[in-house]
Amino acid sequence: MLNVTIDGIKVSVPDGSTILQAAKEVGISIPTLCYHPDQAVKANCRVCVCEVEGNRLLQAACSQPVMEGMVIKTRSPKVIEARKTILELILSHHPQDCLNCIRNENCELQSLAAEYFIRDNPFDLKVRGLTKDVSTPSLFRDPDKCILCRRCIEVCTVIQTVNALGIENRGSHAMVAPSLGKDLIDSPCIMCGQCIHACPVGAIGEVEDIDKLLAAIADPDTVVVTQIAPAVRLALGEEIGMDVGELPMEVFVAGLKQLGFDHVLHTNFTADLTIMEEGNELLQRLGSGGTLPMFTSCSPGWINFCETFYPDLLDNLSTCKSPQQMFGPLVKTYWADKMGIPAKNICSVSIMPCTAKKYEAARPEMNASGFRDVDIVLTTREIGRLFRMSGIDFKKLAPAPFSPWMGEYTGAAVIFGASGGVMEAALRTVYEVVMKETLEDVNFTVARGFEGIKEAEVDLKGTVVKVAIAHGLSNARKLMDQVRAGESPYHFIEIMACPGGCVGGGGQPITKANTRRIQRMDAIYIEDEAMPVRKSHENSEVKAIYADFLHEPLGHKSHELLHTHYQAKNKKFL
Amino acid sequence: MAEEMRIVLRNYGKIDPLKIDDYIAVGGYNSLNQARSMSNLDLINEVKASNLRGRGGAGFNCGMKWNFAYQTPADQKYVICNADEGEPGTYKDRLIMENDPHTLLEGMAICGYAIGATKGFIYCRGEYPSVAKTLKQAIAQAKEKGVLGDFSIEVRLGAGAYVCGEETALIESIEGKRGEPRIKPPFPPVSGLWGKPTIVNNVETFANIPVIVAKGSAWYAAIGTPSYPGTKVVTLTGDVVNKTFFEVPTDATIREVIFQFGGGIPDGKEFKAVQIGGTSGAFIPASQLDTPIGFDAMTEIGAALGSGAVFVLDSTRDLVDVTARIAKFFEHESCGKCAPCREGTMRMHELMDKINTGKGGSADIALLNKLGRVMSCSCLCGLGQAAPSPVISTIKHFAADYNAKLM
Predict the structure, then answer these.
(1) What is the reported pTM?
(2) Could you report the per-residue pLDDT of B8-25, keeping only the tens digit for each?
């Protein structure tokens, strides 16, 4: 332990503590901007500087380790002058359009400017006038707003190993830019949107499709149908001032109806359907010597990653479309018939925790219904904005039911939202299909938790099936490299692009730390626990769609509507 | 009356730099053999006792630095010579490398033995391709003669970035990354090149080593000023008669350097100011000319010995204009990593230009002072911390020049 004095308060802190950590011990909060709890220390914004007795230079609290006997001042006149001046410098090179910024009221720079009451900035406003990058259907970049904290670069490089972003130029011309100065669409970007969570300001955000939705709702001839992804509900509460998981599903449905959606259905229904298709595909591959290990295919960021970095392993990917894209063609065929609504009148909307889903819906092959299968994809954040705009008070809203045929779901679908969930759901079904006996304990707890790579073995009538789960693409890369080297011991691998799985998706409420992702994961298993039915093959609407329409998993209709193919992305990076 | 004393330039003009036998004939590589007969610690203590301090600008005790690297256990350690001589007006390292490359190799090899490193790098300024050629030739000769033993040296060329003279940025550059400074601690002697204990010393520092080993620490410590003993190569530019170099003991005064060695101001003009240590040095007025050039005496007057560049200005020069150009240099050379340097150097140039073109007011001077204060204590590395000193020192000592340009 080391004894230090901070602003006159004596405290003992563990060896290796930084000034920032030591100050926290005594309840002193030091402002930060480039600091991120889940990332390496950068110390480049210098907003956290403090005075250390005997030292002419101010020290960055985030990086400076404390030493025995250190006397630290976190709010001396010298410190305040430095912090205010640095904030003035950053602000004077940053657009002042907070009012119409996507991060208004949720911006770390804006908060600091308020805390340090920056009023009359002595430096002249100088906005760089760089071009906004709107090349992708998922993400935009507004380099004028970038404050060069480099948090986006770290998440893209270290956590996701995508390396789409880097630093270009020097000095005041330095900027974060996609590889070789290209547009994002021509970079290795996989649209996962983790950079949005990392960004302290509005320099990166999701491409908003709210206006398209409002136009569809306003058109009397259009039937607006929506699907809600598993991880959305529990995080949406955070956008509308509720706790994680506090918003009941039926009240959420009622809210969507208030917004003007004609029918509310659930992606969870196609999550259960995915299990039927993917579980059977696994059994088929195991039985017939197909390509193994089989990779899950529900995370579009992961699909982009595989197509970009592992084009030689595309045969390992399950041919199953993601639940969103299974839902799309079914709404415009099966459901349209059941409801007697012409497919051409349907506007199919999905509400997703994901930015890559916007890209996925726009892929040219996603038109199995004869139309674009999913017309509009909204993120959790966008639907939150719509609710705030509409002034809906969820506390006063009566619950409302889902529309029939594609709204029922099981606990197995719910857990799709957390890393390991697809695996656990698949095992629940595969076990019963193979063993032809009831699975007494449906909880495969080894598949749960925030561990980067999880693995398990399941004994199916003497056949040991080895499975692995990875979330965050740096973890996926480890498993992929094993497969590429021919050294993978696994039969089935679940991969989610985002840390924590969809609960931590790029479209979720701005997530400042992994602790929040873990909270959401916990909420998912509580919801699963409370479900009356927890195995996908016991979903009665799933049984009905096989009886009436699809006939059998991996059948002719399934192949036409629910399965897809992949294509190597021949991006030339060098 | 100070006299020139050649230690690091002892072989200048006396040997053919491209002939290793010439170097050996004047006692070259004897010190390396002598060092290898000593224990690592005895050698380090000898260097420490000489009180040799780094000639790159920071003035850290060389032996102490070596000791950190020696005491840090590692399977590999590195010796790097900082030959990224980027300070405008400085060419002392080039003089040593062009005229006596083997003294540098010998100094590095002694350091390698002291700390337990077998690999060395010379990070040579990109604008010195001919120097790199000389160095490579010298290395090849030393290898052929086998004088370096198991110590190998590789030359790496910089690409022109001023910031790569900062030791951690230099290390990043050798690693193939963008040349940007690292957070310290950890310092390179503990964790440097590829995370291994690394000594980064300047060319001039290494060139002192063979002589210290040969003649002993007591001999060296008695030369010049006790707190910063030895000599310093100064390179004179600007409005001075002898635009050349001298190697002088560190107790020589600025006045002696300019008026005795330098021969004073040409054309009968008057002295106005001198900037010592390179572009980031303070401008020194006539009233401080009797300050010795030793590290601590310079620090006391708010200046720095730095690289030993001596840039003299006569009374006809427009100091505000000169300072505005320097501010432009720093805006250009900031790497952009930390906010106060990235934004601050840009603003400093903007404000200096405003004043220089007659559009500034006293508020701009006050803002420059505040900005300088903040940058000098908040920036991540020495570049940003030192960049304001020409501005701050000219505002302080030459206020009339500024006032004459205010609106």
Answers:
(1) 0.95
(2) 999 999 999 999 999 999
